[in-house]
Amino acid sequence: MAGMNAEEIHSRLQARFGDALSALDASSFDPWIGVDAARIAEVAAVCKSDPDLDFKSLMSLSGVDDGDNIKVVYHLHSLRHRHKIVLKVTVPKTEAVTFSVTGVWRGADWFERECYDLFGVRFEGHPDLRRIMLPDDWEGWPLRKEYVFPTEYGGVDNRRDYTV
Q1: Where are the beta strands (DSSP E) in 26-159?
Q2: Farthest CA pair distance, the chain
Q3: CB neighbour burial string for 144-156, b if at least 16 within 10 angstroms, e if fewer
Q4: CB-based contacts of 85: which residues, under 8 Å, 6+ apart?
Q5: Are the C-beta atoms of residues 21 and 14 closer than 8 Å to each other?
Q6: Are the CB atoms for 113 and 131 separated by under 8 Å?
Q7: Are 87 and 9 in contact (CB under 8 A)?
Q8: Is the pLDDT score of 2 beyond 90?
Q9: Per the CB 3.0–4.6 Å rule, which of 45, 101, 136, 143 could disulfide with 118?
Q10: For 6-157, CATH number?
Q11: Residue 107 — pLDDT band, cuts 50, 70, 90?
């Protein structure tokens, strides 16, 4: 099968997962589909294993703070079919939890750890969810909009005057 467009990919997934998916948002540069946090691992497995989708490449997994929620964004690519799609999971900041896709794409390991480290998203089922960039005793999630950078860490004064 030749590469599918975003509408065809959405229709194929919608037929299988129904209410676990939102409508396709094709208004952005990269069309995306919202996925229920509880079903992301299942949707990801089908995205990879369905021969007509064949999303063997998880190009990136990142977080976005939209104010009240964190969006976990998955960029998928099929090398064979040359089509792409973006999946987004939205979790509330107060309970930032979704499921790991490391069982689908092993490369998600460090992506999920980075998203945990910087946004505080917990990935249930991750084999080794711990900080990857910041020290283990770091407090908070530095890429959340409300984060206030500490004025001191480890005995070092972090207040700087960067005016020129």
Answers
A1: 32-35, 57-65, 69-78, 83-92, 97-99, 122-124, 152-153, 156-157
A2: 60
A3: beeeeeeeeeeee
A4: 6, 9, 10, 31, 32, 33, 47, 55, 76
A5: yes
A6: yes
A7: no
A8: no
A9: 143
A10: 3.30.460.80
A11: very high
The pair of three-digit structure tokens given for residue 133, joined into one six-digit string: 């960039």
Residue 7's pLDDT band, with cuts at 50, 70 and 90, is very high
CA 29, 15, 13, 81 dihedral sign is negative
* C-beta of residue 147 within 8 angstroms of C-beta of residue 133: no
Q: What is the DSSP string of 68-81?
A: SEEEEEEEEEETTT
CB 113 within 8 A of CB 90: no
